[in-house]
Design a protein that fits this description.
Elements lengths: L14 H5 L5 E2 L11 E2 L9 H5 L15 E7 L2 H5 L6 H11 L3 E8 L4 E7 L21 H10 L4 E5 L1 H10 L8 E6 L7 H15 L3 E8 L8 E6 L6 E4 L4 H7 L22 E5 L16 E5 L2 H9 L4 E5 L3 H6 L14 H10 L2 H8 L4 H15 L3 H11 L4
Parallel strand pairs: 4-6, 6-7, 7-11
Antiparallel strand pairs: 1-2, 3-12, 3-13, 4-5, 8-9, 9-10, 11-12
This protein binds flavin-adenine dinucleotide and iron/sulfur cluster (3 copies).
One iron/sulfur cluster (SF4) binds next to helix 1.
Length: about 400
């Protein structure tokens, strides 16, 4: 039976809870606001299935795949690309599955509770709720069971999520290769605490007033390279947009202080994966091709024959260019293969989280200092003068990130 001794040994994928036929495992939040499995011993019959499907106890070996291909991708439909985090690759793939009469699973934000849950849809319109990366861990709930039932009924299914969720599903399905299952994972930096996010948003809503109706972690208001954390209010005068360099929750995320312990030692960061597609950003698209604009591009790794077939069938809907030097293609995206380092003050941050009001916590840890304001002002100015992308590129190169 599952017993978590060290929190870094659980990514919260929920494969164990989903497989347990006795419903003996629940997933309560811990004091940091993350879900961990808890076994009810009175229900457990010690069958061992939960351990067999755990993707951390059964790490999937990385098998080099010489047939892997890499592409730059932009959705042709510009309005939907603008509503997508990067180039709209997810929508292109998911729409193909829906066209086959299939069902798509993705992460969706509930603005009543400020929780992110995996949901399923079977219409192209329904895909909108999955667009835009939510930088907070999604609850998988009973999605794996639904995926299995749909596959058994012969339906096409697309499941999108973080690499640990994809490997969790792969193990939950006992590695069975279903012909009609399409797996899409993202390159994943790490995933912040649902508990901290919920408290933060409830506090923000009280501070700002009105009622939040939409939260977008990365809206392309100014550009793809300079996105805003946006909150749309029922009273539009109270809408809230801040650059990610200034917004407190986003700053907490990028300071590596509030992500799940497993993310600091992630077992799923690799180039060769069990998914059909791995999709991620391409901020500096000009470093790869002169044929794409800078309004949002995906890099896509295709791992399987099914992936290649889908890509060839969605060609009319996407601008696509193959990139042959895959070492170069992935080199600047360190999050593909390497875990983030733990913020040195993480322990203190979460001690404070337990003892302080969330507003005071964020003011203490991420105050809006002169330095933060100045940084924000410089970015805005660079943007207004049309030199933001070039300046970003130069700073990145000076810091040796390219
Ligand atoms: C937590 C997280 C961290 C990421 N880190 C990086 C990174 O370090 N570098 C990089 O280049 N790209 C990263 N990405 C990927 C990038 O943000 C885009 O999601 C990706 O480029 C797909 O672009 P798109 O235009 O097709 O996305 P969209 O159309 O916006 O689709 C978003 C997709 O992400 C899924 N998703 C959104 N939020 C979550 C969530 N909380 N949990 C599980 N799945 C979710 C949705 O189900 C959907 O499939 C990350 C994504 C997430 C969710
Ligand atoms: S050992 Fe079997 S019954 Fe017990 S929690 Fe795990 S899956 Fe459930
Ligand atoms: S990693 Fe997934 S399967 Fe393993 S214990 Fe955690 S929630 Fe359960
Ligand atoms: S960094 Fe790894 S463990 Fe953390 S959410 Fe992403 S895939 Fe899962």
């Amino acid at each position: 039976m599952i017993f978590i001794q060290d929190k870094k040994d659980c990514c919260g994928c929920s494969a164990c809870t989903s497989i347990c036929g006795k419903n003996a495992i629940s997933l309560p939040l811990d004091e940091e606001g993350f879900q961990y499995p808890l076994v009810d011993l009175s229900l457990c019959v010690d069958c061992g299935l939960c351990e067999k499907v755990c993707p951390i106890l059964n790490v999937e070996p990385e098998v080099p795949n010489p047939a892997q291909k890499g592409y730059l991708l932009q959705l042709v439909e510009n309005e939907i690309r603008k509503q997508s985090t990067s180039g709209g690759a997810f929508t292109a793939i998911a729409s193909w599955v829906i066209k086959q009469g299939g069902v798509v699973f993705g992460a969706s934000m509930d603005v009543e509770t400020f929780e992110v849950h995996h949901q399923s849809v079977d219409t192209v319109e329904g895909l909108g709720q999955f667009r835009i990366s939510k930088y907070v861990q999604s609850h998988v709930d009973d999605s794996y069971n639904k995926v299995r039932d749909l596959l058994k009924a012969g339906r096409w299914v697309c499941f999108s999520g973080t690499p640990c969720q994809i490997e969790g599903l792969h193990h939950y399905l006992r590695k069975k290769k279903y012909d009609k299952l399409v797996l899409v994972d993202v390159v994943c930096y790490g995933i912040p605490s649902p508990g901290v996010f919920k408290d933060y948003m409830q506090w923000k809503q009280k501070e700002i007033g009105g009622k939040f109706k939409r939260v977008l972690f990365r809206e392309k208001i100014l550009s793809y390279n300079y996105t805003s954390f946006s909150v749309y209010n029922e009273d539009s005068r109270k809408d809230y947009h801040l650059g990610v360099e200034r917004e407190q929750f986003m700053r907490s995320f990028f300071s590596n202080i509030n992500v799940r312990p497993a993310c600091y030692d992630c077992k799923f960061k690799k180039r060769y994966r069990v998914s059909d597609f791995t999709i991620w950003d391409c901020y500096d698209v000009k470093a790869f091709s002169k044929n794409f604009d800078e309004e949002g591009t995906n890099r896509v790794l295709v791992h399987t024959e099914l992936g290649k077939q889908i890509l060839s069938e969605i060609r009319p809907n996407v601008k696509l260019e193959q990139f042959n030097d895959l070492d170069y293609f992935i080199a600047d995206e360190i999050a593909m293969v390497k875990s983030v380092p733990m913020g040195p003050k993480r322990e203190q941050f979460f001690k404070d989280y337990q003892n302080m009001q969330i507003g005071d916590l964020m003011q203490k840890w991420f105050p809006t200092t002169m330095k933060v304001r100045l940084n924000s002002l410089l970015r805005m100015t660079a943007f207004r003068f049309g030199i933001y992308n070039d300046a970003k590129r130069i700073v990145k190169r000076l810091l040796g990130k390219n």
